[in-house]
Amino acid sequence: AKARGAAKVLVANRSFDRAAALAKDVGCEAVELSAVASGEVKGDVLCNTTSVGMHPYEDQTPVPAAALKGYKLVFDAIYTPMETMLLKEAAAAGAVTVSGLEMFVGQAAAQFRLFTGKEPPVD
Known about the structure:
This protein is α/β, with parallel strands linked by helices. 33% of the residues lie in helices and 15% in strands. It has four helices and five strands.
């Protein structure tokens, strides 16, 4: 994201040590997940790649509704359920939302290309 013009990229993880290691590898800054969840740390785009919100925890979210105000786009890598609590609350806060289904289909299409050398039928 930073290479594509993002002013600042932050990585948060349930384990700060893991966030710090990833941030170091990709050249960005690590923050505590609690700082994002409390609204102390803000941004334009939020990407959730945790399992929080997936079955059997559909009633949970990694970032509460109050902390979602101001985000322009929220992506959740979870695709079951397609609309997680995070995405519902982000939409209610005015953000554009993207479910993990789009990433899942994109990954499947890339795998199809690698294994067959043909273009996949993605419709």
